[in-house]
């Protein structure tokens, strides 16, 4: 079983829906960070199908996880249910048009005796602190962050723009359209939480020791940016700060960096001034 020590989930902008969520159920816990191509008309939610997918997956994981024995099978089942719910409402031409689907990065963990199973889609992160203070970082986020920051820097430089405006710039929209068309021509949906249950076979799976007293922090990229983009602290210091003072001061620090230290994105290139910021801190 996990004990929840703290959790936080803040939207990146007060006028936009929070497309992150986190949850826990018995020996299972997760963080989900969804998105959708800008300009895609919502069909499941008044503002964002990504927000709908996050909440749907969270509800189904809460109900199904206690009886599950394997993360791949569990997520395949949840995605199949999401696909059925989506197809019941969405126009037929969008049933297989995967570039119009909401997608989610996520980390799902399960404690199995003294072992922690970690399944990851995309750029969410699991920080695992052993009772002796050693910290492991699990997931693909650092490498993905580096590539995204480089692209953001290049597009902002071309547009002479900043994170608050880059999503509306012609150079960004042209890059986005080319990326969307390239993905459509590939015919292969992304390996992310989506309406494609087969993507579960492409989950990254890792394990870590998880004896009693181990603490786990699951974070969306808006929270892990403190470590892998802003370099405000290393992973071990992040865990120590979370255990000492909770998650709110850390979320506040991220916002201070984004809005005061680097509002123009020159130090830390990114596509949004502030991203949705979500984390859950657990003890085994």
Keywords:
5-stranded antiparallel beta sheet, 7 helices, PPM-type-like_dom_sf, PPM-type phosphatase domain-containing protein, 284 residues, PPM-type_phosphatase-like_dom, Phosphatase 2c, domain 1, alpha+beta, single chain, 36% helix
Provide an overview of this structure.
This protein has 284 residues and is of the alpha+beta class. It has a single domain (3-141, 192-263, 273-283), classed as Phosphatase 2c, domain 1. It contains seven helices and ten strands. It has a five-stranded antiparallel beta sheet. Helix 1 (49-64) crosses helix 2, helix 3 packs across helix 5 (221-228) and helix 5 packs across helix 7. The protein is globular, with a radius of gyration of 18 Å. It starts with a strand and ends with a strand. The model has no long low-confidence stretch (mean pLDDT 95). This is PPM-type phosphatase domain-containing protein.
How would you sum up this structure in a few lines?
This is PPM-type phosphatase domain-containing protein. Residues 17-231 form the PPM-type phosphatase domain. The chain has helices at 49-64, 71-87, 141-159, 170-186, 221-228, 235-245, 248-261; strands at residues 3-10, 20-25, 28-35, 103-112, 115-121, 125-129, 135-138, 204-209, 215-219, 277-283.
